[in-house]
Write a structure and sequence with these properties.
The complex is a heterodimer of chains A (about 350) and B (about 260).
Chain A: H1 26-48, H2 59-92, H3 97-101, H4 106-113, H5 124-136, H6 141-150, H7 156-166, H8 172-192, H9 203-211, H10 219-251, H11 254-259, H12 266-278, H13 285-290, H14 298-310, H15 313-319, H16 325-349
Helix pairs in contact in A: 2-5, 2-10, 4-6, 4-8, 5-6, 6-8, 8-14, 8-16, 10-15, 12-14, 14-16
Chain B: H1 2-16, H2 29-49, H3 77-80, H4 82-87, H5 90-113, H6 121-126, H7 129-134, H8 153-162, E1 174-182, E2 190-197, E3 206-213, E4 226-235, E5 243-253
Antiparallel strand pairs in B: 1-2, 1-4, 2-3, 4-5
Helix pairs in contact in B: 1-2, 1-5
Classes of the chains: A mainly alpha (about 350), B alpha+beta (about 260).
């Protein structure tokens, strides 16, 4: 840690700059001016846009914009929260703090990691930056996957909303909690057996991990750098993923999915497909699927709640910032098969 | 970074102009706006504190290896993926830069240049309005002691879905505002007066509605029009099953401030 420079407070300081470093004072001012100019430019676009711009669009295009924008606006606060928590964890959590407190046995260790969501109840979009931070702090790739898959389901908010929506009906709540726990630990175990876990990561992220220990600078400065890096990685993925989700929503008729709803086998796959396409946050997806309650079998609902919380279009776009495409395909297949198995089992019992 | 600013500006502007409800459920408003403001402040701080190029921790002179004009500076790939970009050939960096710029430009254009809009009746039809209405979860309001003039489209959809006696609400005056959606099978004498109900954000919007009996309605109102209908519920003359709103007056109106119901 070399103290390169005192952090500059966010006020533009007046007065003559020190003779030793005339550029020191101006650089933050330049960055800040660029940012403020950018904001003003964006607000300008918004204010000057003709109010009838939307008239020219066809209904489907209009709906596509509305749907995509709503996914972005709904996810963005969670992503910010995740990035901020992740930055805080990396900068202010003492070295080895997690590693020391977790049990040595890999199974017990992963089981405990899957419960971390209880302490950090961000939904799945916010978990991605957090998991990236945890990998950089020394968690293995398999363990981070366990966290990624379990946290959206095993957190108080999700459990409460699922209970509000379904109560104890048909074992939906219990199946969701157990299913989420089992799948997360299964995936963690599978990837813990990988010979070279670092090869699962995208080259740029692996490089960032290797580089993580050597970052210097004052804490606020490093925090700023991390925030900049994380938003640069996450936001394009979020925007593109949301656009894909919006596009599919406009293109795929829900009629088709819902006509499949009553068959004990087909309904499971239909709702999983819906979960994949809709990409709703796990904190509230229970209310969404509740509106299909009478159409679908309980097993299908469980499959929706388990699979959708872990994998969907937007989530895959976010995960692609960290994991290689091949890994994501494997991950999707494993989680899908396991969710389907759980859903079918619930239907068998019900 | 540019995307951060776009997201922040969009969110805060929607919040200030009270249109956030077009996208998300009001219970998230405060959280969303607070996080957007925090995100914006941190982004500005990052712009101020982070040197414009990597390896600049010790105040080197020249650090403008990449300088677009305008707001895209902080998003240039050497900043975003310094190490990867360093190792890859120049062509890839150019490709990455143009992709990043394209995403930024398109996002800014779609999110900022078009005014916020509600979902259209096309989506209502697509999402199978009569089925979602029939499946509507929740408890119908209790009529006893309630003031029926406060009932929303959703309340009436619930009530009429559960009621088989056509004269149950014969003496309850109803006034509802919603948009016009064609009824399934597109009959000439019935349309749906519809609203979207939102549980979390517009993605999960479910159309709900009540049938309105108005022969040759297409000559008086167009699909997607917002209408104010007053009348009473009675037996549906069109199908002979279930209840329909028998209107006394139907007038085209402005889209309400809050088009969704929750």
């Amino acid at each position: 840690m070399t103290e390169a420079r005192r952090p500059i407070p966010l006020t533009l300081r007046s007065g003559p700059p020190g003779p030793s470093a005339p550029r020191r004072r101006t650089r933050p001012a330049i960055g800040l001016s660029i940012g403020i100019a950018g904001i003003l430019a964006l607000v300008g676009i918004r204010l000057l846009a003709p109010p009838e711009a939307g008239e020219a669009l066809s209904d489907s295009v209009q709906d596509f914009i509305t749907l995509s924008a709503s996914v972005v606006i709904e996810s963005l606060p969670f992503v910010f929260l995740g990035i901020l928590v992740s930055t805080a964890v990396q900068l202010w959590m003492p070295e080895g703090f997690l590693e020391r407190r977790l049990p040595r046995n890999p199974f017990a260790r992963r089981a405990l990691i899957s419960l971390l969501g209880v302490l950090l109840p961000v939904c799945e979009c916010g978990n991605v930056p957090l998991a990236r931070g945890l990998i950089q702090r020394g968690l293995t790739v398999g363990e981070s996957m366990t966290f990624l898959l379990a946290a959206p389901i095993l957190n108080p908010i999700t459990i409460i909303t699922t209970y509000q929506a379904f109560g104890w009906d048909d074992g939906i709540l219990v199946s969701r909690i157990l299913g989420g726990f089992l799948i997360a630990n299964l995936v963690g175990w599978v990837y813990s057996r990988h010979r070279d876990p670092m090869s699962l990561l995208t080259p740029s992220f692996a490089a960032a991990c290797a580089h993580a220990d050597t970052v210097s600078g004052s804490k606020p400065r490093r925090a700023a750098r991390m925030f900049a890096d994380e938003t640069s990685a996450m936001l394009p993925a979020l925007f593109v993923g949301s656009a894909i989700a919006g596009l599919i929503q406009v293109a795929v008729s829900r009629d088709l999915l819902i006509t499949l709803g009553q068959n004990p086998v087909l309904s499971v796959f239909a709702l999983m497909l819906l979960a994949f396409v809709v990409g709703i946050c796990s904190n509230v997806d229970a209310f969404f699927v509740l509106s299909f309650g009478s159409t679908f079998t309980p097993g299908a609902i469980v499959a929706f709640l388990v699979f959708g919380a872990m994998i969907d279009v937007k989530m895959l776009a976010l995960l692609r910032t960290t994991f290689r495409a091949r890994v994501l395909v494997q991950l999707t297949v494993i989680v899908a098969l396991a969710s389907a198995a759980i859903g079918l089992a619930v239907n068998l019992v019900a | 970074m540019a995307l951060t600013l776009i997201g922040v500006v969009v969110t805060v502007w929607l919040g200030v102009s009270g249109q956030l409800g077009l996208y998300i459920h009001p219970r998230y408003n405060v959280f969303t706006i607070v996080m957007a403001v925090i995100g914006g402040v941190v982004a500005l701080a990052a712009l101020a504190l982070v040197p414009l190029a990597p390896g600049d921790e010790d105040e080197d002179e020249d650090d403008h290896d990449h300088d677009h004009d305008g707001e895209a500076v902080p998003d240039a790939p050497p900043r975003a993926r310094p190490r990867a970009a360093r190792r890859s050939p120049g062509a890839r960096a150019v490709l990455g830069a143009s992709a990043a710029l394209a995403v930024i430009a398109i996002s800014a254009f779609l999110l900022l240049a078009f005014p916020p809009a509600t979902l259209s009746a096309q989506t209502a039809v697509d999402r199978d309005i009569d089925r979602t209405t029939a499946d509507l979860a929740g408890d119908a309001p209790d009529l006893t002691g309630a003031d029926p003039s406060t009932f929303t489209v959703k309340d009436w959809a619930l009530l009429t879905a559960q009621e088989t006696d056509p004269s149950a609400y014969a003496d309850v005056p109803v006034e509802l505002i919603g948009f016009v959606a064609p009824a399934p099978g597109e009959p000439d004498d019935v349309f749906y007066l519809a609203r979207f109900t939102v549980t979390c954000c517009a993605v999960d919007a479910q159309p709900i509605g009540v049938p309105v009996y108005l022969p040759d309605w297409q000559e008086r109102v167009a699909v997607d029009d917002w209408v104010r209908v007053s009348g009473t519920f009675g037996a549906n003359p069109s199908t002979g099953e279930g209840l329909a709103l028998i209107p006394e007056t139907v007038e085209v109106t402005e889209q309400p401030e809050q088009p969704y119901v929750y």
